[in-house]
Amino acid sequence: MLPTTSHSAILIDDATALENTLAFNFIDMSASLAPECNEVKEKYDNCFLKWYSEKFLRGTATSDECEPLFKQYEQCLTKALRSRGIDNMIKEAREDNRENDAEHMRPKR
Question: What family, per the record (predicted)?
Answer without folding.
Answer: Belongs to the TRIAP1/MDM35 family.
